[in-house]
Design brief:
- The protein folds into 3 domains: about 5-90, RNA polymerase II/Efflux pump adaptor protein, barrel-sandwich hybrid domain (OB fold (Dihydrolipoamide Acetyltransferase, E2P), Beta Barrel); about 100-230, OB fold (Dihydrolipoamide Acetyltransferase, E2P), CATH 2.40.50; about 325-540, Chloramphenicol acetyltransferase-like domain (Chloramphenicol Acetyltransferase).
- About 25% of the residues lie in helices and about 25% in strands.
- It has helices at about 85-90, 200-210, 215-230, 235-240, 250-260, 280, 295-305, 325-340, 355-365, 375-385, 430-445, 520-535, and strands at about 5, 15-20, 30, 35-40, 45-50, 55-60, 65-70, 70-75, 120-125, 135-140, 145-150, 155-160, 165, 170-175, 185, 190-195, 345-350, 395, 400, 410, 410-415, 415-420, 420-425, 460-465, 485-495, 500-515.
- The chain has a 6-stranded mixed β-sheet. Strands 1-8-6-3 form a 4-stranded antiparallel β-sheet, with no helix packed on it. The chain has a 4-stranded antiparallel β-sheet with strand order 5-4-2-7, with no helix packed on it.
- α10 (about 375-385) crosses α11 and α10 crosses α12 (about 520-535).
- It is elongated, with a radius of gyration of 31 Å.
């Protein structure tokens, strides 16, 4: 018996997942414990294994696409097993026979409503996610008059989750388009009509509107369609692509182009209406890119001003659309929630780093020892938190939670945003132990091999942009922490020492505090203690 596999919840904060890669294909034999796919969550990319044995009969979410937790991911069963009933039960129907919705005879008007002709199908806006209430037509891949085969991609529909390809379940001629490119409409709105060539579209629209009670709107749509249909040409999509207003490409082609660093504006499409598909990106090479040509008006203009040559730049405007990843969406929600719920205030000090530089050089001269300035900052913060427990707190509506343990969050930049691995019980670790832990966690975070529980439980966070030359900045508090420290670059500059101007090394740090738990004086005292540790590193070794 076939088994439905839904999008799993792989972390406590996961609301949706993206299929990074399928390791099995439809038709493959699957054993219990086999890895089916790599699922990208809001925290990491994780392998997802099968709990069933059988044949992979259906894939519900394509590579690169995202879907909410519990969405249909795959179906596993016996080879050749009929799964139509399972698919119909898990997806919204494209259309229903409208004749069934005809009012009862007692309530019918004097003239019986026109029935939808046999063989004509009314296609409505599909519900492509469990939370979808309306969709937007990103692009039509077929136009009125085109012959449609079952399985052909009709359009790209943008939902509240992602932009997805919508395929036809019917064969026939595309008779009518009800929602134009760029327009949105509620689920179950008239999307298109498919049927035999020569069908009276007005009659179908009238019959459909009689069933739905929307006759005026349907008539208006029919009139607009008649006005616009003659203007459609064979090269509409390719012209739009060539002038840079929109590039038509399949989601898989976009994904491959992004991975290879290829600008889709340079790729010629071989699909319907010049649409870029997988093979176009895979076969692309820079030498085949079309050379930019100076338009005739531009050439005439240059020739007319021979005495004073004028450079006329030539190029194409283009925009590439990349879907937001699950990680990026999660970061947005998390930081937005922190910024707009916690009242932030900021305190900045400048630290003399001469002794820190000398101490680091001396420590790193020892065999098999490597300590960074960031490791020194983490250690100093951990020790300062022990003396100022009010900074190591969490606000709740009922109480302020004082954390007795000190877990340091370390902000790490990855390709898709920012993650925060946690060095636990940092106050009990030596500088070298902190350095080794940070190196291990950051490396696995960048390769997406870090475990979710290794990014949970921080009580204080440090964000360091000094290695990028940033001298001073502010950060958003990493909830549920009460504070975060922003660390700038060490700068060599003139300073006053003992009444004389000398060359010194200084570093600015900024503490962002949640005013509900940390008052200004408390934050200032914490920074004074932090400065004392950093300016006298030997005290951290005691």
């Amino acid at each position: 018996m076939a088994e439905i596999i839904n999008m799993p919840r792989l972390s406590d904060t996961m609301e949706e997942g993206t299929v990074a890669k399928w390791l099995k294909q439809v038709g493959d034999k699957v054993e219990e414990g086999d890895i089916l796919a790599e699922i990208e969550t809001d925290k990491a990319t994780m392998e997802f294994e099968s709990f069933y044995e059988g044949t992979l009969l259906h894939i519900g979410i394509a590579e690169g696409d995202g879907a909410p937790v519990d969405s249909l991911l795959a179906i596993i069963g016996d080879e050749g097993e009929d799964i139509a009933a399972l698919l119909n039960g898990s997806t919204s129907k494209a259309s229903e026979p409208v004749a069934e919705a005809t009012p009862e005879p007692a309530a019918a008007p004097a003239t019986a409503p026109t029935a939808i002709p046999e063989g004509v199908e009314v296609v409505t806006m599909p519900r492509l996610s469990d939370t979808m209430e309306e969709g937007t037509v990103a692009s039509w891949l077929k136009k009125v008059g085109d012959v449609i085969e079952e399985g052909d991609i009709l359009a790209e529909i943008e939902t509240d989750k992602a932009t997805m390809e919508f395929e036809s379940f019917y064969s026939g001629t595309l008779l009518h388009i009800g929602i134009q490119e760029g327009e949105g409409a509620p689920v179950d709105s008239l999307l298109a009509i498919i049927g035999p060539e020569g069908t009276d579209v007005d009659a179908v629209l009238k019959a459909d509107s009689n069933a739905s009670g929307d006759a005026p709107a349907a008539k208006e749509a029919a009139v607009e369609a008649k006005k616009e249909t003659p203007k459609e040409g064979k090269n509409t999509a390719s012209v739009a692509a060539s002038d840079g207003s929109r590039i038509f490409a399949s989601p898989l082609a976009k994904k491959i182009a992004s991975e290879k660093g290829i600008n889709l504006a340079d790729v010629s499409g071989s699909g319907d209406h010049g649409r870029i598909v997988k093979r176009d990106v895979e076969n692309y090479s820079p030498s085949t890119a079309p050379a930019a040509k100076v338009s005739a008006p531009a050439e005439e203009k240059v020739a007319a001003v021979a005495a004073a040559p004028v450079y006329v730049p030539v190029g194409e405007e283009s925009v590439e659309e990349l879907k937001n990843s699950s990680m990026r969406k999660a970061i947005t929600r998390h930081l937005g929630d922190s910024k707009f719920s916690a009242p932030h205030f900021y305190l900045t000090i400048e630290v003399d780093m001469d002794n820190a530089k000398a101490s680091r050089a001396q420590i790193n001269s020892l065999p098999d020892t490597k300590v960074s300035f960031n490791d020194m900052v983490l250690k100093a913060c951990a020790m300062a938190l022990r003396k100022h427990p009010q900074v190591n707190t969490t606000w709740t509506d009922e109480a302020t939670l004082y954390k007795k343990h000190i877990h340091m969050g370390v902000a790490v930049a990855v390709d898709e945003g920012l993650v925060v691995p946690v060095v636990k019980f940092a106050d009990q670790l030596t500088l070298t132990q902190i350095g080794a832990s940070v190196k291990d966690l950051a490396g696995r975070a960048r390769s997406k091999k870090i475990k979710p529980d290794e990014m949970d439980g921080s009580t204080f966070t440090v964000s360091n942009l000094g290695m990028f030359g940033i001298q001073e900045f502010t950060s958003i508090i990493n909830k549920p922490n009460s504070a975060i420290l922003s660390v700038g670059a060490i700068v060599e500059k003139p300073v006053v020492k003992n009444g004389e101007i000398v060359v010194g090394n200084t570093m600015k740090v900024t503490l962002a505090c949640d005013h509900r738990t940390v008052d200004g004086a408390v934050g200032a005292q914490f920074l004074q203690t932090l400065r004392a540790y950093l300016e006298n590193p030997v005290t951290m070794l005691a």
